[in-house]
Amino acid sequence: MTKDAVKQAEENLRITRVKYEEGIGTGTEVLDAVSLLSVAGTNQYRHAMTSESQRLQFIMQQGKISWRYTNNARGKNSRETAETEKPQP
């Protein structure tokens, strides 16, 4: 769904730029199209990160991966993390 939104926003921007270059569109319309593309890209990234986070939580709940190893992705030492942080429910 979010990939489609990005594709639609890209096409909207392309069309809006052509209209602007032909003199039948305004700069404001181009800026609006750029803004919409930015929002669609941000939503796509947010969706991907949420999905990955949910997948990781599911794997952790099944006991297939320890919570301490997930903190390594944040640049923390796993031994240090195991001693200083408690697992999140």
Itemize the secondary structure elements and their pairings.
Elements: H1 2-21, H2 27-61, H3 67-70, H4 78-84
Helix pairs in contact: 1-2
What's the quick description here?
The chain is mainly alpha-helical and 89 residues long. It is built from 4 helices and no strands. The protein is 74% helix and 0% strand.
> In terms of per-residue confidence, which ranges show pLDDT below 50 for 5 or more consecutive residues?
77-86
Mean pLDDT across residues: 79
Helix percentage: over 70%
Please state the structural category.
mainly alpha
Q: What is the N-to-C succession of helices and strands?
A: HHHH
Strand content: under 5%
Number of distinct helices: 4
N-to-C span:
30 Å
Choose one word for the global shape: rod-shaped
Count of distinct strands: 0
Domain tally: 1
Q: Largest sheet at a glance?
A: none
Q: In angstroms, what is the radius of gyration?
A: 21 Å
